[in-house]
Specification:
alpha/beta; binds 2-acetamido-2-deoxy-beta-D-glucopyranose; two-stranded antiparallel ribbon; 8 helices; 25% helix; Rossmann fold
Length: 287
């Protein structure tokens, strides 16, 4: 397994920050982000090929959180390879149609510690709310069973947006203790700038990164300009391709990172590639 640790000290606009990217943890979490698309019976068997081989011991104490009405799903479990509790949100099963039936209108974020008109994506937040009580009880089961384990959070696509929205709650269920890693992949925007600033300043996780790849159009939606003014929440780790080192962009919105694609060409296939694994074959990956 290729391991790469990059440290970048940078002055951020909102807070002074040091941005550490741990590619080893990121790749392990990408494996679990893919696995959230696999069906129930195949997950404990850990038989999805390369993504599953990232974490050969799979998930113990596997738990599934699911709402069929909203098609929202997360998988949880304890990973012996990482000595961590894993929470991984699934994207939409129809990955190319993730936004079609979800409202991008604003929803007032209910946590009062987020001040200054914090707003989130109504569709994503509604989906998240539809599993929040199951998520909490299952997370607390794992916390009780593995009290000293680390806590890792991930997701791909819509699942990445759900991971972002769940982060403040998981932090609170974790006893207001920092998570150990939050790496998510090809996320659409999930909130406005007030929420993004709050999330960033709250420093809810030791490692945090928003991994993007190539010219993925999903990462540019909903748009950051009129009339929506959506805003990404955190640092970007941009892979032009997965054969070279990523570019680390400490600003939440940086036109020299993945956002460069708005000035060139979109390539939807880039959304379906994580570390050179072909997610368009995700269903068959898990058989
Ligand atoms: C679920 O996985 C099993 C093998 O573990 C496979 O036989 C079955 O076809 C899968 N079902 C779906 C709906 O993908
Ligand atoms: C999936 O597995 C979990 C954990 O083993 C279980 O609670 C849940 O009922 C299963 N769901 C289905 C649809 O089989
Ligand atoms: C699933 O989501 C729907 C719509 O938000 C909600 O009415 C329902 O109570 C949820 N089901 C469960 C089991 O939480
Ligand atoms: C609001 O977020 C904070 C983290 O900043 C958390 O500790 C607190 O429990 C949250 N409050 C509610 C009501 O969810
Ligand atoms: C965020 O948390 C990390 C790890 O605990 C710490 O090293 C860093 O100083 C914190 N950053 C800020 C701005 O508080």
């Amino acid at each position: 397994m290729q391991k790469l640790l990059i440290t970048l000290a940078a002055l951020c606009l909102v807070v002074s920050c040091q941005f550490n990217y741990n590619e080893g943890i990121s790749k392990n979490l990408a494996g679990f982000a893919v696995q959230a698309y696999c069906n129930n019976t195949s997950i404990p068997l850990n038989n999805c090929g390369a993504p599953c081989n990232q974490n050969p011991k799979g998930l113990q104490n596997f738990l599934e959180v699911k709402n069929t009405t909203t098609s929202t799903r997360a998988i949880l479990g304890y990973s012996p390879d990482n000595d961590a509790i894993i929470i991984s949100f699934r994207g939409t099963v129809d990955l190319n149609n993730w936004g079609a039936d979800l409202s991008a209108a604003w929803y007032n974020y209910p946590n009062l510690s987020c001040t200054g008109n914090c707003q989130v994506h109504t569709g994503f937040f509604t989906n998240y709310q539809s599993i929040i009580s199951q998520l909490k009880s299952n997370f607390l089961v794992l916390k009780a069973n593995y009290p000293s384990a680390k806590v890792y959070l991930t997701g791909h696509s819509l699942g990445a947006a759900l991971a972002t929205l769940s982060l403040p709650d998981i932090y609170s269920w974790n006893g207001n203790k920092q998570l150990d890693a939050v790496y998510h992949f090809e996320s659409p925007r999930a909130a406005n700038q007030a929420f993004a600033n709050w999330l960033r300043a709250s420093n809810f996780s030791v490692y945090y990164g928003r991994i993007t790849h190539g010219y993925d159009p999903v990462v540019q939606n909903p748009t950051s300009w009129w009339p929506l003014y959506y805003y990404h929440t955190h640092f970007e780790v941009f892979y032009l391709n997965f054969n070279n080192q990523p570019k680390l962009c400490p600003q939440a919105e940086d036109t020299t990172c993945g956002a460069q694609s708005i000035y060139t060409a979109f390539n939807p296939a880039d959304h379906m590639n994580l570390f050179n694994w072909d997610l368009s074959a995700a269903g068959s990956l898990c058989s």
